[in-house]
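Give me the fold.
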Amino acid sequence: MQLTAHQIGILLEGTVDGNPDVAVNQLSKIEDAQKGSLSFLSNTKYEQYLYTSGASIIIVNEDFTPSQAVAATLIRVKNSYSAFSILLEKYDEMIKSNKSGIEQFSFIHPTAKIGKDVYIGSFAYIGPDVKIGDGSKIYPNTYVADNVTIGKGVTLYAGVKVYFNCQIGDKSIIHSGAIIGADGFGFSPDGEGSYRKISQIGNVILEENVEVGSNTAIDRATMGSTIIRKGVKLDNLIQVAHNVEIGANTVIAAQTGISGSTKIGDNCVIGGQAGVVGHITIANGSNIGAKSGINNSIKIENKSWNGVPLAPYRDSLKIQVVMKRLPELEAKVLELEKIIKNLIK
């Protein structure tokens, strides 16, 4: 990729401040950038690097005023972080656009329906009655079981497993090692100290523009569907149990576990290592801190929560302060007990 400042300014609808003909061929962090690199500044704590960076072009906010002379050409935009993310997306698309066609040693069942411009890598398995939409990419060693539907522009990276009857929506991305549609954790005590497996006959539905991180597991429903609504972003190493529903545009960080039949609302943010019990609901817009334990339904929308047990965010901070003082408070209580005993005597 080689672009001039003028071309980038047009792409980002920005204003060029400096040489419009200077060209770049790589993207770099501002502190590491060399000649020929494009970088950006959005956080003012990195402003010091603006004056020493070797970058040829730097994207900044349109209202930014440098305190020193800047050697690089500046492109001024409304939001430099968002603008740079657009360039990263374009760059990413260019890298992946060279993947096309069906590679040797892949298996495609005769009843599978493959759309136009689909890439299927070596040793991928495409089962009976699978439907794959136009422009999707199935990387090597991927398993797509019977009757799976994959939409348009979907990417399944190497080693993804999609069990039977599941549905993957348009433009979704599933990273390596993720498993979509394994059995939910359902067992019934048989009265003799062992457990009888409950067959899981449902599926998983991912709506459009969902991203699933590496080694994340989304279990199929016992009956019906486990549903991940449009725009949801799941980090690596997340467990989503059977019959869970996650609302649109919710984001969940790594190592979170969500128990069965829980319903999470739209536009929620859940921090890493949070634990969610089953059969509860979480209101739209809930913001939950890392390592929180959610053991009851959250009914108030657009509120922040934190801690174990879960409490409103500010209350949880006060609790943490008190917890740190517990040894001191215990000593005071013991001293008061001694005084009271002496008074009784």
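The radius of gyration is 26 Å.
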